[in-house]
Design a protein that fits this description.
- By secondary structure, the protein is of the alpha+beta class.
- It folds into four domains: about 45-400, Zn peptidases (Aminopeptidase); about 410-540, no CATH class; about 550-650, Alpha-Beta Plaits (2-Layer Sandwich); about 655-775 and about 805-975, Class I glutamine amidotransferase (GATase) domain (Rossmann fold), CATH 3.40.50.880.
- Helices cover about 30% and strands about 20% of the residues.
- It has 26 helices and 42 strands.
- Strands 27, 28, 29, 30, 32, 33, 35, 40, 41 and 42 form a ten-stranded mixed sheet that branches. The protein has a seven-stranded mixed sheet with strand order 1-2-4-3-5-9-6, sandwiched between helices.
- A hairpin with a 2-residue loop joins strand 41 (about 925-930) and strand 42.
- Helix 7 (about 160-175) crosses helix 12, helix 11 (about 295-315) packs antiparallel against helix 12 and helix 17 runs parallel beside helix 26 (about 950-965).
- Its cofactor is Zn(2+).
Length: about 1000
């Protein structure tokens, strides 16, 4: 705990205070013994310092770098310094979910600080140089200072960054050395000391609780380990360093807005890694996203060398590349796609005190802080030295991006109109957050070269109102990175990736390989290979829809189920005591088109509702930004359903519990929690997994089991769940929590993992063919229905001649295929359009899949969503296939499943999906529902709310949570 001789007296005083909790029987306080090698004798901030600037120690109560400062202490330090320094301005750019402020500090000379509005204006002109003359460009560059953005601790438990930020701020505002004063004349240095205050608050509280009297350098001790739901994540347990292109949370939204406002030349992001590591920085190795400008790498090598020189002077070990790749654009490195040079720091994680490394050396927390500080100062000095040339390369690239010679000149992303207003609004908001130029078509536009999301080349007509994002714009690189259907990976990388998978099961891929926003959001989109510039206008938000459209003598209100917001509307109405129905088949009532999944609120059902029904409906509709249409008649047109028939189902208010705690994925739990809070806003409970045995499940009718890292529930817990389900509960299990339910020994679910299904593989194939045939609109057998003679031949939907593989052979093949599981690809899945779980979903949806269990379903298990989309083969291709086939009738298989006649199975939509993974995944179940007693079990093979952004599958989860207790489980009549 004592790292510098200059701090020794204060350290002993602190230790004495802490030791009051450890008083011996004789009443004497025991101070810690000396620990050789723990002291860090190098001052973090050196040189001549102004006495008018309070030292960090005088504000924090301990020397900066001795321990992790709390978010409150960081805010206090910024406020104290702002009062006395003319070199800094503090800007609050956001507030966290828990209400903590996020700040950036602008540090420069007084002259530059007085001119920040002009500096930002000049930077914006360079970032979008439309009509910018060469002479004006030169004048702007000549007068602009270097502008850097230094960001720290987006992972709250990677603590050293924030403390290095405090040291850097103090050095820059207090130093009276000539090199610093010159640096400030030439530079505007923006420091964001803490990007994740909620996570750091959780982390520092944990440190406080685990801190002892004596320093601890053992990485296995609880001081150096994390409790469940670590400080790495934010309030909702999201990893904010994956959110920069997704913009789900206020912390990253604020950073993105600020980066857009400043357009900095340099961004650094300080992290930590494993305690036994050293220090990583510099350029990433392959795979690297191909949308990055060449000048990013050119200048990256310059910064890399200067930073290495600075670390060499301190005799500190470091390395570059190795595990660091840069394919996924949603890290803080998203700024590089805007033209900002981005540098990642990864310091060995010390947490506090120090860590004993394998070489016997103790690395102190202060040393880790110092490495971040030395690197930061080195980088901003390099920028000051090369700023003008970097500006020139930046503008050169921007000019190319808006010109006819742009690498994206002939590309437009078209998002087709949808009645899912909430989903489209979220998409537009994200595009606007990123600063993209948006347009809309004013007339139908014919396009001859377009690719749809299934990879098909199509000729089509874009309807009026199509949202158009032209790739030929100043932010074209980021537009492409976020919206292109595939991020290309070189053959060399794929060769090495396959070698690794075969050698030891490792991967080059650090994150998902698919993330394009239109697929994540489940919006139909096209990539058009032309720059659409005619019959368009700048995007304008649609007129706000009225929350209610009243009608005289109305008997009910209807809310369109195609809009995701309809689920929240139903949930909130039920919580307010309003009886609510849902329709499972489309109809037309009183000239109002009603889609399946639409919500109906009738006066008949709410005869005894004590409040003002119209006012409550209007209030709830306004909250959810939907329109409640009044209908005055209940007769459906023609043979369409009438109000009062069996298609109008009464919903039951969900009473929701979510399992959380030890063994549960905090990321998946947090995503579900955030989805309920942000989409529904209704009450629900979080059940600690360690207390599950003592939980009275009768309080709930819906239980959600998020993904688990390992089998968590024991026999008694599974037995309790089984009894609860049979009594009428709705159990929803996701990803890693599914195998403990599908295990035959559990006797809970009839769904099986593929490894447990090979003994009955033919039965699964037959069940699949029955599913397919039940969805057809015509049958050739009908032509023979009226003949009197018994038929002598029947066409079976499988190959009756083929000899099936043995269980042993199937298992052997599956073990081979399983090696090539994807690290994150988007695949096509077909939906059962008659199932309530797919309300609001089109026939084919994109599903993000990773190393999820492969599920098999048959018999009484209802498969609402299954992997793979059937597409009819081209007639000539089918004829050729029939001609070349040896056996007649033609029978084809993908994996274990027979392909229907004339059909192909489309699977991959985006990302890296090896053929072996495709074969294994094909026709497996993504979403199943099965009755058990009076209740039901709903299984998702993967995580439906990945990073809060997979909106197509999130809708399925919301359907299950809100509608399940009324539609899938037997609900007794309780109002007697």
């Amino acid at each position: 705990m004592y790292m510098r001789n200059s701090y020794k007296a204060l350290s002993i005083a602190i230790a004495s205070t802490l030791a009051m909790s450890a008083i011996a029987a004789d009443g004497v306080t025991r101070l810690p013994t000396e620990l050789q090698g723990l002291n860090y004798n190098k001052p973090l901030v050196e040189g001549k310092l102004s006495s008018s600037i309070p030292t960090p120690e005088s504000i924090l109560g301990f020397p900066v770098g001795q321990r992790a400062a709390t978010p409150a202490q960081i805010t206090e330090a910024l406020a104290a310094w702002q009062k006395v320094s003319d070199r800094m301005q503090v800007v609050e750019y956001a507030q966290s979910h828990e209400g903590r402020p996020l700040h950036y500090v602008v540090i420069s000379s007084a002259k530059n600080l007085a001119n920040t509005d002009q500096i930002k204006s000049d930077l914006a002109r360079l970032a979008n140089p439309v009509n910018l003359s060469s002479s004006e460009e030169k004048r702007i560059i000549d007068r602009l200072p270097a502008v850097s953005w230094l960001a720290y601790t987006i992972h709250g438990n990677e603590a050293s960054g924030s403390d290095a930020a405090l040291a850097a701020i103090y050095q820059l505002i207090a130093s009276q050395e000539q090199d610093i004063e010159t640096l400030l004349d030439k530079s505007v240095i923006i420091i964001d000391p803490l990007m994740n205050p909620d996570g750091r608050a959780r982390f520092t509280k944990q440190l406080q609780q685990r801190r002892g009297v004596a320093p601890n350098v053992d990485t296995q001790s609880t001081l150096h380990t994390d409790a469940w739901a670590t400080g790495r994540s934010n309030h909702y347990f999201f990893d904010l360093n994956r959110d920069f292109t997704l913009g789900v949370h206020p912390e990253t939204q604020g950073i993105v807005r600020s980066i857009n406002e400043w357009n900095p030349q340099l961004m650094i992001d300080a992290h930590e890694m494993g305690s036994m590591d050293s220090y990583l920085f510099g350029l990433a190795r392959e795979p690297v996203n191909k949308n990055l400008s060449s000048h990013i790498r050119k200048w990256g090598t310059v910064f890399e060398q200067d930073q290495a020189d600075a670390l060499d002077k301190e005799n500190w070990p470091y390395y570059m590349g190795e595990w660091l790749e840069n394919l996924y654009p949603g890290y803080s490195s998203y700024a590089a796609f805007r033209g900002t040079i981005h540098i990642l720091y990864e310091q060995a994680r010390i947490k506090e005190d120090g860590v004993m490394q394998p070489n016997g050396r103790i690395v102190s927390y202060a040393e880790g802080v110092d490495k971040q500080l030395v690197s930061s100062i080195a980088n901003i000095k390099t920028l000051a030295k090369h700023s003008k040339d970097i500006y020139r390369d930046f503008v050169k690239d921007k000019r190319q991006l808006i010109s006819k010679d742009s690498p994206f000149a002939d590309q437009t992303f078209a998002i087709l109109p949808t009645k899912n207003h909430q989903r489209m609004a979220k998409f537009v908001n994200l595009m606007q957050l990123q600063g993209f130029e948006l347009h809309q078509s004013t007339k139908p536009i014919k396009v001859s070269k377009a690719k749809n999301q299934l990879g098909e080349q199509v000729k089509t007509e874009l309807p009026v109102g199509t949202l158009l994002i032209r790739n030929r714009q100043s932010q074209g690189r980021l537009v492409s990175a976020m919206l292109e259907f595939d991020a290309k990976i070189t053959d060399e990388v794929l060769v090495e990736e396959r070698q690794r998978l075969l050698r030891n099961g490792s991967s080059l891929m650090y994150d998902a390989t698919a993330w394009n926003i239109s697929m994540m959001y489940g919006l139909e989109a096209l990539t058009v290979k032309e720059d659409i510039s005619e019959d368009i206008r700048p995007y304008e938000a649609p007129e706000q829809r009225p929350p209610i459209i009243k009608k005289e003598n109305a008997l009910a209100y209807v809310i369109d189920g195609q809009d995701d917001a309809s689920v929240g509307f139903a949930a909130r109405l039920m919580e307010r005591g309003v009886t609510t129905r849902i329709i499972d088949k489309e109809t037309v009532l009183d000239d109002v088109n009603i889609s399946r999944g639409s919500i109906i609120v009738s006066r008949y059902d709410n005869e005894f509702f004590t409040g003002d029904l119209d006012a409550v409906v209007e209030k709830t509709a306004k909250e959810m930004h939907v329109t409640a249409h009044a209908v005055a008649g209940g007769h459906g047109e023609g043979d369409l359903p009438d109000f009062g028939g069996s298609h109008f189902k009464v919903l039951a208010q969900p009473r929701i519990a979510i399992l959380h705690g030890s063994g549960v994925s905090s990321l998946d739990f947090g995503a579900i929690w955030h989805s309920i809070d942000s989409n529904l806003g209704i009450r629900h409970s979080h059940i600690d997994s360690n207390h599950f045995n003592w939980t009275d499940l009768r309080r709930y009718n819906t239980l959600v089991l998020p993904s688990t890292w390992r089998s968590k529930l024991g026999k008694s817990e599974l037995s309790a769940i089984n009894n609860w389900v049979e009594s009428g509960g709705t159990l929803i299990a996701i990803d890693g929590s599914v195998p403990q339910l599908t295990n035959p020994k559990a006797k809970l679910s009839q769904v099986r993992e593929i490894k447990d299904a090979f003994k009955e593989i033919e039965q699964y194939d037959i069940a699949l063919q029955r599913e397919w045939l039940a969805q057809q609109d015509s049958y050739p057998e009908i032509s023979n229905i009226w003949q009197h003679n018994a038929v002598d031949t029947v066409n079976y939907p499988w190959d009756v001649k083929a000899k099936p593989l043995s269980e042993k052979q199937l298992k052997k093949q599956d073990e081979w295929l399983a090696q090539f599981r994807t690290s994150g690809a988007i695949v096509a899945a077909r939906t059962d359009q008659k199932h309530w779980l797919t309300f609001g979903a089109p026939p084919v949806i994109p599903v993000l899949t990773a190393r999820d269990p492969i599920l098999m379903s048959k018999g009484r298990v209802e498969t609402a969503v299954r992997f793979g989309s059937y597409q009819e083969m081209d007639a000539s291709a089918w004829k050729k296939h029939v001609k070349e086939a040896k056996d007649k009738p033609v029978s084809r298989k993908v994996g274990w499943a027979t392909l229907p006649q004339k059909q192909e199975l489309t699977l991959r939509m985006s990302g890296l999906l090896w053929p072996e993974a495709s074969k294994r995944l094909a026709n497996s179940a993504y979403l199943t529902r099965e009755r058990k007693g009076n209740g039901q079990i709903i299984l998702f093979s993967g995580q439906p709310v990945f990073r809060g952004s997979t909106l197509a599958t999130n809708r399925l989860l919301l359907n299950a949570i809100v509608y399940g207790s009324g539609l899938g489980a037997h609900t007794p009549i309780t109002k007697l």
